[in-house]
Amino acid sequence: MFDAKGRTIHYLRLSVTDLCNLRCRYCMPDGVEKLEREDILAYEEFLRLAALFAQCGVDTVRVTGGEPLVRKGVDHLVARLKAIPGIRRVTMTTNGVLLAQQLPALLAAGLDSVNISLDTLSPEVFARITARDAFADVMAGIRAALESGLPVKLNCVPQVGVNEGELEALAALAETKFLQVRFIEMMPIGYGAAMPCISGPDLLARFRKRWPELAPLSRQETAGIGDGPAVYYTAPGWQGSVGFIAAVHGKFCASCNRVRLTSQGFLRPCLASEAGCDLKTLLRSGASDEELLSAIRTTIWEKPQEHHFELKQDVPATRGMYRIGG
Question: What pLDDT, on a 0 to 100 scale, did the predictor assign at position 228?
Answer without folding.
Answer: 84
